[in-house]
Amino acid sequence: MLPRPFEYVSAQSVGEAISFLARYGRDAKLLAGGQSLIPLMKLRLAAPKVVVDINRVAGLGGIQDDRGGWVIGALTRHREMERATAIQKEFPILGDTAVTLADPLVRNQGTVGGALAHADPASDWGTTFLALGAQLELQGPKGPRRVLIDSFFRDAFLTVLAPNEILTKIHLAHPGPRSGSAYSKLKRKTGDFATAATGVALTLNEQGGVSGARIALAAAGPTPIRAPKAEQALMGDRPDVAAAAQAAARAARPPKDLRGGTDYKTAMVEVHTYRAIERALERARGRKR
Ligand SMILES: Cc1cc2nc3c(=O)[nH]c(=O)nc-3n(C[C@H](O)[C@H](O)[C@H](O)COP(=O)(O)OP(=O)(O)OC[C@H]3O[C@@H](n4cnc5c(N)ncnc54)[C@H](O)[C@@H]3O)c2cc1C
Asked: Does the Cβ of 36 fall within 6 Å of ligand 1?
């Protein structure tokens, strides 16, 4: 199907994009990689009167190691994340996520910021950045504000972004020593969203016990969700990986759909949480995998 007729404008700066949004309000939609917006427009599930292209906005892309941590521009393509070996040394979960997201064609175009703003319940980046406790920088007419990703997603396909705001940057603090992270995803075929997926980020103390853990699940609720009881089960001198994986499965509320029934998906949450924790532990212990 063809989209409904729309006006196209191209913003050259974040300020200009915000003024377009302020002028057209809810009639306007930002266009980043177009990998979610264009299919929705073709299906006529979205019919913006004005499309504001942000692809020519300077300074909205790129991955930088700032003194305080890493800064990922919202317009960074999935493919760039796949190739970003420097940041993956500190956060190997980013490489795990990038290679499993969609397919190479989508990864060439789609952006990290677009994926977060789109807020699919099965969003791979949403789940991974939730596990990492990322801070998101949003900019509107009143200037920038930062939001912890835990309070960014409000519901399926709904975030705290105001209609006149742009997601500009994702901030990640440098992880401490003995930190590890991993993402494990089950999908039916290349190019598919997760049937079940888990992101894990953890830190060990000097004795090898777990001193910090964040576990996030994709496709297990209306938004990517954390599994606090699974995190608790992992903490302490002897991390109980099986108990943590079982607790994650209990936290999951996966909907029955074409990818499987609730019982099957819940069982897969347990399997993939177990795998992600094991890999994150190995990485934290310095045994690369
Ligand atoms: C075949 C296919 C398979 C896919 N598989 C997966 C998958 O396995 N896992 C997964 O997580 N995703 C998957 N996706 C989605 C893909 O990751 C998209 O790239 C992503 O969801 C949207 O990013 P985009 O840059 O293309 O955004 P767009 O489509 O351009 O925009 C999406 C929405 O976000 C808004 N937006 C974009 N950028 C910003 C910004 N900076 N600030 C505020 N709002 C913004 C737009 O207005 C729009 O509402 C798939 C898509 C396709 C087509």
From this structure: yes
